[in-house]
Design goal:
alpha+beta; Arc Repressor Mutant, subunit A; transcription regulation; WH-like_DNA-bd_sf; DNA-binding
Length: 250
């Protein structure tokens, strides 16, 4: 039996939403396929060690979303096919990164915009006088795949605020004449989704995620762009050409 962990119980996210996330994830991964009969409310309640009413709330939420359909006398069935999320390739140079954003054309949902300074160490560069901070959720074909918290030098943002609000920032920076990016660096780490990230990406809390810290500096070492990007762990793909050795016959 899968019981809710202490972290889950202490989470500000209601239990039925956490269970709905777990059930939604099963559909997304194809564990529950379209047309399949799902377990009963009693079985779901027993699996997660919660009350039947909590299990019913979770299932009803997925019914509202159209993922599940009840059939009188038969049970509840998966009505929506698993969403297809294109893998996100981790690239290793700035030009490829810009092209990736141009080719994928993610759908943007800004969940916050304000003036805020990034909390970065001096080793990453000198901070600009002011930044525009935007927190966004990226999706493709309606499937959410990353949350990005980015900071853009206010002086650059003010040159074309509407475009920076409605388009991906990196291609816009690359198209500026002259391009202000003199140095670009990113760091990839693996972790698990916190409650807020899980809510925005609609995945279970503590799901695996890939976090990318991305920093662009101008020629004077000023941080003109800083981003903390969190990708769903199941969409990230890393490919590395390790080369090879040729065997010589003696």
């Amino acid at each position: 039996m899968l019981t809710m962990t202490r972290a889950s119980l202490a989470s500000p996210i209601p239990l039925y939403l956490q269970i709905a996330d777990a059930l939604r994830d099963r559909i997304a991964r194809g564990v529950w396929q379209q047309g399949q009969l799902i377990p009963t409310l009693e079985q779901i309640a027993g699996e997660f060690d919660v009350a039947r009413v909590t299990a019913r709330q979770a299932v009803q939420l997925l019914m509202t979303e159209g993922a599940l359909t009840p059939q009188r006398g038969r049970g509840t069935f998966v009505s929506a096919a698993a969403p297809s999320i294109k893998p996100v390739q981790v690239v290793t140079n700035l030009q490829e990164l810009a092209e990736m954003y141009r080719s994928t054309t993610p759908e943007l949902l800004t969940v916050d915009e304000n003036s805020r300074v990034p909390a970065v160490g001096a080793s990453l560069g000198t901070l600009a006088p002011a930044y525009t901070h935007m927190k966004r959720v990226h999706s493709t074909d309606g499937a959410l795949y990353c949350v990005i918290s980015l900071y853009l030098d206010e002086r650059i943002f003010s040159t074309s605020p509407e475009r920076f609000r409605t388009q991906t920032v990196i291609p816009l920076l690359m198209d500026l004449k002259p391009c202000p990016i003199a140095k670009a660096h990113q760091t990839l780490t693996i972790g698990s989704a916190d409650a807020e990230t899980a809510r925005l990406l609609r995945v279970p809390a503590d799901s695996p995620i890939a976090r990318v810290e991305r920093v662009f500096n101008d020629r004077d070492g000023l941080v003109i762009y800083y981003a903390d990007v969190v990708y769903r762990g199941d969409v990230v793909r890393v490919e590395m050409d390790l080369g090879g050795t040729s065997l010589r016959k003696k």
